[in-house]
């Protein structure tokens, strides 16, 4: 999966033993798209300690390629990235059937109301401005995963309707 470009490197951090899902279930998977190394390392450390397997990409092209290989449970996407913006990457995610419903947290230094509105209009599930408290990031990511799992449960628990052409 390596592109050969250091700015588009994808690196994974495995969750510590015993910190994955309940009952030995696999760790929760998160794709982090952040070009600032110090911020990415801090987020990876925080989330891996919370039981997440974190895949990190430095730009949108690497992120879109990573989605083809591994389906994360949640995406944390920086607003300002080299090349294509976070909003453009979000649009590409939403246009793909396999990632259209993926929970996406926009994480950005651009905290103005118009930026928040643009992110939500583009399909962001949530928005968190930098700087942020560690607990705020954890709560946002956990909340997105919980909401996605609840929605998936509701869909799978819905009895099937009449078959097409019957009724």
Q: How many H/I helices?
A: 5
The strand count comes to 6
Return residue spans where pLDDT drops below 50 for at least 5 consecutive residues.
1-23
DSSP strand (E) fraction?
A: 15-25%
Distance between the termini: 48 Å
Please give the order of strands in the largest beta sheet: 1-3-2-4-5-6
How would you state the average pLDDT, rounded? 83
In terms of structural class, how would the helical and strand content be classed? Answer: alpha/beta
The CATH homologous superfamily is termed: Response regulator
Task: Specify the biggest β-sheet.
Answer: 6 strands, mixed
GO molecular function: DNA binding
Protein name: Response regulator receiver domain-containing protein
Pfam family, one: Response_reg
Modified residues (4-aspartylphosphate): 78
How would you explain this protein's 3D organization?
The protein is of the alpha/beta class and 167 residues long. The chain has one domain (6-15, 25-153): Response regulator (Rossmann fold, 3-Layer(aba) Sandwich), CATH 3.40.50. The protein is built from 5 helices and 6 strands. A 6-stranded mixed sheet has the order 1-3-2-4-5-6, with helices on both faces. The longest helix has 24 residues, at 134-157. It is globular, with a radius of gyration of 17 Å. Mean pLDDT is 83; it is low at 1-23. Residues 1-24 are annotated as: Disordered. InterPro entries: Bact_response_regulator, CheY-like_superfamily, Sig_transdc_resp-reg_receiver. It comes from Phaeovulum vinaykumarii. The modification 4-aspartylphosphate is found at residue 78.
